[in-house]
TrEMBL record:
GO molecular function terms noted in the UniProt entry: alpha-N-acetylglucosaminidase activity
Protein name according to UniProt: Alpha-N-acetylglucosaminidase
Organism name: Eudyptes sclateri
Alpha-N-acetylglucosaminidase N-terminal domain residues: 2-58
Record-linked InterPro entries: Hex-like_dom2, NAGLU, NAGLU_C, NAGLU_N, NAGLU_tim-barrel
BP-aspect Gene Ontology terms: system development
Amino acid sequence: GGPDTYRLRSPPGAAVAVAVTGSSGVAAAAGLYRYLRDFCGCHLSWSGAQLRLPDPLPRLRAEIRASAPGRYRYYQNACTQSYSYAWWDWARWEREIDWMALSGINLAPAFTGQEAAWQRVYHSLGLNQSEIDAYFTGPAFLAWNRMGNLHGWAGPLPPAWHLKQLYLQYRIVERMRSLGMITVLPAFAGHVPRGVLRVFPHVNATRLGGWSHFDCTYSCTYLLDPEDPMFQVIGTLFLKELIKEFGTDHVYSADTFNEMTPLSSDPAYLSRVSNAVFRSMTGADPEALWLMQGWLFQHQPDFWQPAQVRALLRGVPLGRMIVLDLFAESKPVYQWTESFYGQPFIWCMLHNFGGNHGLFGTVEAINRGPFAARCFPNSTMVGTGLVPEGIEQNDMVYELMNELGWRQEPLDLPSWVTRYAERRYGTPNAAAASAWRLLLRSVYNCTGVCVNHNHSPLVRRPSLRMDTELWYNASDVYEAWRLLLSAGAELGSSSTFRYDLVDVTRQAAQQLVSDYYLSIRRAFQSHALPELLTAGGVLVYDLLPELDSLLSSHSLFLLGRWLESARAVATSDQEAEQYELNARNQVTLWGPGGNILDYANKQLGGLVLDYYGVRWSLFVSALVESLNSGSPFHQDQFNQAVFQVERGFVYNKKRYPAVPVGDTLEISRKLFLKYYP
């Protein structure tokens, strides 16, 4: 009944090196990883594993016992479902769930397959298939359909999609529960398809505004009035359907106002909404606990003043809601809401937006933040969480956060990262350890309010007003690059080392792109055509192709991997084409007209050359043409021309390899010899 606890001990006799016991499956798994990590020098992450066990296995001199300081270690963001998991098969899910268990995570969403249940509910209410098809988005955008932000874009969902996702969900919840995890199921937040208004013409529903540069073609969802009887009917119907299908652990997720302004700021109205959502949960499960993302409070602080926050939170009985303080490492909400006015909360590290690549971290903030939150006056903190929008990047930060979820006090970061490098590569190496200490103090130590959207000119539509600001010394990354390369002879056979070498070289190249961009801009503004041709030529014809070949040398940095995983879910050529368009659009235009252009930018082999590279080529040509003809450069005209290039990439049907080519070390060394400043 208390906090999760594990115990490690070496029993007498030689038969068993270590016995691991835990208060739950997750606690035991966390204890197992502690032994593998701290006594066997092993490492496990998204980018690879280093599991060379010592022989014989080390025995413990004394028993080790550890208890988690909070009830929960939470993982996943509503957006991760689309930015990272959209095309996963069971093998990939199984690996993730095992990683979650070893990381000690005991609370996580199980959102897969919910559209199949919604479809049944809509049919039972009298909606026809075309009305349902017009509502669901395509697979790569379902996260925002579920939160009421979007409808219809890149859809519809084929019948085979529902079947395959249902099958996956059965296995996901079974695996999570078998390990002692609490699954969070989706619930009704109040958004309905337009078809509901046809079937029930007297229903009281109002359209919300457009979301994030989308107009009402694909946005402006209908929100049921909290007092309308259909709110309870639909909400309870859906949850009963879900519980009948998957069972329940009594925790449910719903976000009514994610990045959308409520119809009224009247506290009484906001209380009625949250109370209606909660009642629709308890109508199906009297033990329901509502898990809500707290992103909205810091995203629209002008609307969510203390009175409005309090009203929304207090519409639910105290203790029957858990709030995710979603961006606590940079913009904690608990501090200005008296610890969420008494509702329990989880201190979360968001860290990543859009699944962007780019070295980034706020290590000092996450090393101190959870402990400060626990000591806050009348703190209602009940755990820690990892809530990145996209995964498979910056492994170190997540390893650190997972370890902090089990600690009673902060870590000594420089010595921690030295041990991290040794475990990750399977052997101590002075140069690699120095590289990691440099990265830790620079690129991984953003302080103040840090928002990790990759704004590098490399991955943004070119203009004469681009952001090249860094929160760290670029020279630290160049030096870490040099140090890692020098360790290549000794560590080159390690898969995790090769991944890190690509990642650090990629970061150095990203910095170099900014330098060349500034040279291009200076040359253009001072009408120096030869300098413009030189800087533009090096960027377009050498640096970007070299970066593309570096990325193409590692399987985790391939555009083909993302696109082929989308096609693999399909059961027909037509589905394969639809899914591939979903996958391409998400990482580029993000909408029909570049609505959230480059928000989910990635640095992938194939994408750098055929998307970012083509844009830069067009930009340099436009500037050269402007100087040659003496006519001014017009950004608007360029945007119209470059949109055709961007859209052309989404629809070009070119197949990209899902298998790497080239030697990572050789390519990195070649780039280094040419470009190291």
